[in-house]
Amino acid sequence: MNLADLPLLSLLLAIPFAGALGLMLQPVTAAPARLRAVAIAVLAVQILVSLLLLVPFDPAEPGLQLRELHSWIPGIGLDYRLGVDGLSLPLVLINGALTLVAVVCTREFSRRPRLYFALLLLISGAVNGAFLADNLLLFFLFYELELIPLWLLISIWGGAGRAYAATKFLIFTAISGMLILGAFLGLALLTGSVDFSLTPVTSERLAMGSQLVLLAALLVGFGIKMPLVPFHTWLPDAHTQASTPVSVLLAGVLLKLGTYGLLRFGLGLFPEAWSRLAPGLALWAAASVVFGSLAAIAQRDMKRMVAYSSRGAARG
Amino acid sequence: MPASLPLSLQLAWLIPLYGFSGLALALPWMGGLFPRNGQRPAAYINILVTLLAVLHGSLALRDVWLTGPHHISLPWFAVADLDLRIGLDLSLYTLAALALVTFMSLVAQVFALGYLDKEWSLARFFGLIGFFEGALSGVVLSSNLFLSYFLLEMLTLSTYLLVGFWYAQPLVVTAARDAFLTKRVGDVLLLMSVVALAAWSGSMEFTDLYSWAADAKLSGSVSPLAGTLLGLGLIAGPMGKCAQFPMHLWLDEAMEGPNPASILRNSVVVTAGALVLMKLMPLLQLSLIATDVLLLVGTISAVAGALVALAQVDLKRAFSYSTTSYLGLVFVAIALQQPGIALLLLLCHGLAKALLFMSVGAVIATTNCQDLTELGGIGRRMPATLSAYLVAAAGLVGLLPLGCYWCFGQAVEALGHSALPFAAVFLLTNLLFLGSPMAKTRRTPEVNWLMALPMVSLTVIVLLTPLLMQRIDPVPGIAAFSLPVGLAVSASGLAGVVLGGLNRLDQVRSGSLADPLRGLQDLLSHDFYTERLYRATVVALVAAASRLTNWIDQRLVNGLVNGLGRLSLQSAENLRLSVSGQLQSYVFTVVLAIVVLLSCISWWTGALEVLP
């Protein structure tokens, strides 16, 4: 059977979600080690499938490949469209590998292991969805979906100040989601087309002023997620309070969503407005790097230090 | 590449990979797959792959000798409009440098087998040396600035790991950290220039960059300021690598690492840094200031390094400062557009300094002591070490028939016409290197054969350096300098040796009681207090800036966020009190909100039209 015929991308979503469901169906009394073994098995299959992507993937061809398309709710422009390109492929691989690391390095099993591992898998699936989505609304759906399990992971398994950190994270990321959704809806409203596809907006279709406003909303939205100064204060708290495996996932995968979104949607949708803002963006990113690194030096808490340095690394 | 090339040249890209494969092959032992007392095989494997690299390199050298220089280029990474290629330059001088690197690595590894006889993590050491050697051979062969930069970073990493080899000691940890950070400063500055060059010239191959630089100079497309900044960034990388004046502290601290790594670091790593600088030289013509800075840095390093070396009591540290000093001379030669002299000096210095460090290593291995005030009289007990030391020292200070003598002679002759003061620098530095005899310590046996063999063979090679130089550089003749110059050089060398012989070691080192002398000695032995100066300026500045940033972050940015949170909670609390239960007031509020929202939207869409 030909590999290209398999719905590999859908499998990448289905496997972690089904795994999460399967874990929740286990009896409450199931041994934590066994639950972890199940999670590891699911992730192994997920990584295997993401490695299989490399076979039909053609690096020479630009644009999205291995596309899958199913009409979902055409009335509001929400289609189930997936695709992968040179930008998202490595991120998908990293996502699988780091979730596996997070599962393997989990040391503390005592509290509600079933839910814990299921949530980790849920995050992995949602992040895969966000990386593979080829429709603005679909991306947004997955972008928001990943938020809830992470919030639970911080607020259940976190440290002493977890309530503060989790709420801060939730509010910041919800605002980020709102801005992004606002930008997507505004785009549909202003251009008059509701297909929410990833086609670049030219100045014939939309005035430069509106483009700049929409891009600014996206910048702030993804800037919160990346995070760039001054929208970063949620990250040090989240890192300090989250348990180490969750921190691994947060720094390794979830923050990449911000950069990915900025590249895919900020640059992909508004190339003209982007080129106008580019020098300013470079300055902003450089300021973020310096600010983050300097603040990292002043930290005494090691996890906080990592948080600040990962802010330094998240340059545009 | 044409198929007609000899096989050894076609496969030249393999040479750096030998070293890296050594690391990969040592991994099972490093990872603890085998018992900790069975680590020798990893060492043997590494020596074997290094031997392969030496053989391959010498075959390639022979083929290039016969068929002339070649350039090979391999695709590496291509995405959209980014096309990175691995370019290797196979010319006589790169391959000679490669032979030096691989041979030194081989010698140092055999030496290490004896020196680290009782070391637990032998495999880790040899794996790291393999990594080190791979990166070094890559740097030497690379014809592409980006590749060079990349490999220089790998060198920085491997230096860090090697210096921090005995990571359980606090001094070692600070030394490794300082080495890493100092080189990083240089590397980051270099990266800035690399990025700027990539944007301006569009290619990273040195040959393209040279023609771009020549064009830019003619057309004036690069402003003087930009050219100066570019040049300063470019020399910062090699300055960090070669431990030149403002970035020299790490080399002295790095002496905390194992001695065999010190051999490599002081002979070939600094050579690689200088080679990169030499490759960058044509790009520096965009800015006179950069050349002047190079000259200044070289001069300061040469004189100050030699002075500081005199006042050290630690055997290894004294010689590390002398490395700084010699590389300062190389920098001066490069800055004065004398690449031939720089190359010869590098070769002689590399060989002699490696030998010197070997004899020092032999002394340390048998006495477990590197404090000069406690050593002496080893000569009769360790004849091989003594002869190696004497030959190396004589080679370094330029006693008559040995390598550096000819280099100094040529340098003084060539520079005498153009820049007399710098010729004086050469003579002065030469004079400063007092050979230090040793005279104490009973019951020190000669080292084992694993250390003696490479030492003795290298001794022979150092003795033969003049012949080697004649082969490499036959055209102008290495003896192409006038009699007075030759006399001056040998006089300065002899004067140094005589002075060194007259000064009884333990008296000088134990410190003078007279106040002015005492102060001078302290000043020198503390490296002109550079470290304290750094602590008071750079380190303090960064620490203050980071505290300020943290304050802004905590008080202003985070304070704003928390304030907003408190504000919304507070307003919600207050609003709660206004709940009356009357339906009319609710409806009124809702209608009011809708009106405000709609007017906002209409104003906003109107404003959008006005925007450009």
Helix content of chain B: over 70%
Strand order of the largest sheet of chain B: 1-2
Beta-strand proportion of chain B: under 5%
Regions with little confidence, pLDDT below 50 for 5+ residues of chain B: 416-443, 474-479, 504-512
Shape of chain B: globular
| H/E series of chain B | HHHEEHHHHHHHHHHHHHHHHHHHH
Largest sheet of chain B: 2 strands, antiparallel
Poorly predicted ranges of chain A:
none
Number of helices of chain A: 12
Strand composition percent of chain A: 5-15%
Task: Quickly count the domains of chain A.
Answer: 2
Strand element count of chain B: 2
Separation of termini of chain A? 42 Å
Sheet of most strands of chain A: 2 strands, antiparallel
Descriptive tags:
heterodimer, A: 316 residues, mainly alpha, 2 domains, two-stranded antiparallel sheet, 2 strands, 5% strand, B: 612 residues, 4 domains, 23 helices, globular
Task: Walk me through the structure.
- The complex is a heterodimer of chains A (316) and B (612).
- By secondary structure, chain A is mostly helical.
- Chain A has 2 domains: 1-134; 135-279.
- Helices cover 69% and strands 5% of the residues of chain A.
- A two-stranded antiparallel sheet of chain A has the order 1-2.
- The model of chain A has no long low-confidence stretch (mean pLDDT 85).
- With 612 residues, chain B is mainly alpha-helical.
- Chain B has 4 domains: 1-143; 167-454 and 467-516, no CATH class; 526-563; 582-612.
- Chain B is built from 23 helices and 2 strands.
- In chain B, α6 runs antiparallel to α7 and α7 (170-201) packs antiparallel against α9.
- The two termini of chain B are 54 Å apart.
- Classes of the chains: A mainly alpha (316), B mainly alpha (612).
- At the A-B interface, α8 and α11 of A face α22 and α23 of B.
Topology:
The complex is a heterodimer of chains A (316) and B (612).
Chain A lengths: L7 H18 L6 H21 L12 E9 L4 E7 L3 H17 L8 H20 L3 H10 L1 H11 L4 H30 L16 H18 L8 H8 L2 H26 L1 H27 L4 H12 L3
Antiparallel strand pairs in A: 1-2
Helix pairs in contact in A: 1-2, 1-4, 2-3, 2-4, 3-4, 3-10, 4-5, 4-6, 4-10, 5-7, 6-7, 7-8, 7-9, 8-10, 8-11, 9-12, 10-11, 11-12
Chain B lengths: L6 H4 L3 H17 L9 H28 L2 E10 L2 E9 L1 H24 L6 H20 L3 H19 L6 H32 L4 H14 L4 H18 L7 H5 L5 H22 L7 H23 L4 H21 L3 H29 L15 H15 L5 H16 L1 H13 L16 H24 L10 H20 L2 H5 L5 H11 L4 H48 L5 H28 L2
Antiparallel strand pairs in B: 1-2
